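ENTRY TYPE: paired fold submission
RECORD: A
CONTENT: sequence, then structure tokens
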Amino acid sequence: MEKASLGEARTEQGRSRVQRSGARDPFPADSFETQPAVSPATDEGSNPPRSDASATTGFSAGRTETPRLRRVAHHLAVFTGSFDPVTYGHLDVLQRARGLFDEIVIAVGHNPDKPGVFSFEERVDLLNELVGELVATHPRGAAVRVAHYTGLTVDFARQVGASAIIRGIRNVTDLNAECQAAITNRQVAGIETVFILTSEKYAYASSSLIRQIAAFGGSMDTLTPFVPDRVQLALRAKLDDPSNPLGRLRAEQAQD
């Protein structure tokens, strides 16, 4: 009690000095509100109502509650392309993208400007085999699944709930073409595009170039640095099929 009285006396002395000096008391007595103590264990009917702040944050007076954790968004991206055929460049971009997203859907699309050498089913089968080997070799990273679609890429991306579209970039020429498509997709569908640079050793390898090498009589061994062995075997089979665009082109070149 003596300590309390001494403290009160000092407080009054301090207020008197402030008043005599004409300075404004920064802590007037009426600025403090005394809150009644709340027992942690009270009956339900005796608990005081929570303020707006406590209702928002999940905390209430006199008790400690763990705030609810906000659910982290699942970042899914679609890696689009014709993949006709799939190359090491495609797989290189995929592996790099696996470190950026939670899930990736390889979306095999139909390009009306490119005659298809492999059917949708054949491309999906090849990708499933190659992606399975990639994930088994490098288990860390995003989950990957393969699908095919027709129509607009942005429509498919919205259908699977994608937050971004992945596009591989080999050089400045690719970048110029892809920038226009990326801006259009963002304006039309509000979906972003993520550009991933492929490795330097695949910078000049493309599916169309590989088809040309195979069709114009180039040695299949020259394709070893650019496509997996199973893709080479599939290309050889297409060259012997006269009903396939690649086989027809090879036959025309042989006649000339």
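RECORD: B
CONTENT: sequence, then structure tokens
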Amino acid sequence: MIAESPCGQSKDATLMMVLAKPAPLPNPDGTTSHSTKPASGQVAGYPPQRTPLSNSLDETTSHSTRLQTTAAKSLVIPQAGERTNEKGNLESSGEETNDRCANLSLHLADENATIALAQRLAARLKPGMVIYLRGDLGAGKTTLVRGMLNALGYGGRVKSPTYTLVEPYHAAGLDLRHFDLYRLRDEDEWEAAGFRDEFDGQNIFFIEWPENAQGLIPHADMEIAFEILEQGRNTEIHANTEIGKQCLKQL
């Protein structure tokens, strides 16, 4: 004979109800709580909880901002009478401070620092500027040009015009010409290519290996020389004209 519980149910039935009851869930504070039964017609755990869209956008924007500022943090611009050493620290240059607008010495620790310099220069370019780029193969000349063009909004491929001698670009309303004169043979090749017509006072020029066209190209407003070091690059920037000095002063 099966014993009856006070409410009319068997002990076995009561025991089954107890076993079927969900176990309490632990809380972080050590207390326990029972799970909540899903509403009628609702599947437990669905729909999944989603991160609010505004939070996702905030996180994406924050990440993008951090990426954009990485290059800028890689470059230290010295003040009057200073320069950066191989560790990127400021030190006395030993030069007169009134020469600050004409000369600038920088240590570029890596490619990010070169891009940061390019971004600063790009914001200060003026129509008709002529910039000489000096340094050995692989020193960073084309990297600097690519960084300036990208900073101006150009999204295409930027390569060294080693065989074409010149590559034209248009960005931010500016016409720019990137010359690589490493393979220029002589004046006849220069004249036959019609390069002289490019210097119309409006185009901006980045000229690698300018010494190969000495006497054929205008004097530089600014000269940027790269020296390859065991760690990074040493960069000397010299302004020859008033427009070049204004560019350096605004850096």
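NOTES ON RECORD B: The first strand starts at residue 25 and ends at 26. Residues 1-8, 13-20, 50-68, 90-98 have pLDDT under 50 and may be disordered.
STATUS: closed
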